[in-house]
Amino acid sequence: VQLQASGGGLVQAGGSLRLSCVASGRPAFTYNMGWFRQAPGKEREFVAAIRRSGSATDYADSVRGRFTISRVNAENTVYLQMNSLEPEDTGVYYCAADQGLWNRASLPDEYDVWGQGTLVTVSS
């Protein structure tokens, strides 16, 4: 599977963005999906994950209540709706695919395929 992330941009604090991740090559429903982010000078960190069926999700504490992960398997697309953005949310956002069993994977090593990333910049 190949993953293509998009939707990043520059937004003011308090604003919203919606990221998209389109899967090609294999149906998206064969994978659990996750979003990670990496700020300059920092390690890649978990943001959110969603089960193949969409029946379960998990979030990092830092984004819980502000971000929503969802998927439309018929469109092979996973979304990350980001509301109430803060400058600390700035970074490159990556989508990733996990072909294993659903276990709320939150470590980069648990994911098998990565997209190229999309930059989100939140100004104060």
Q: Which secondary structure elements does this structure contain, and how are they paired or packed?
A:
Blueprint: E1 2-6, E2 9-12, E3 17-24, E4 32-38, E5 45-50, E6 57-59, E7 67-72, E8 77-82, E9 91-98, E10 113-114, E11 118-123
Parallel strand pairs: 2-11
Antiparallel strand pairs: 1-3, 3-8, 4-5, 4-9, 5-6, 7-8, 9-10, 9-11
Kindly describe this structure.
The chain is mostly beta strands and 124 residues long. The chain has no helices and eleven strands. The chain has strands at residues 2-6, 9-12, 17-24, 32-38, 45-50, 57-59, 67-72, 77-82, 91-98, 113-114, 118-123. Strands 2, 4, 5, 6, 9, 10 and 11 form a seven-stranded mixed sheet that branches. Strand 4 and strand 5 form a beta hairpin. The radius of gyration is 13 Å and the shape is globular. It starts with a strand and ends with a strand.
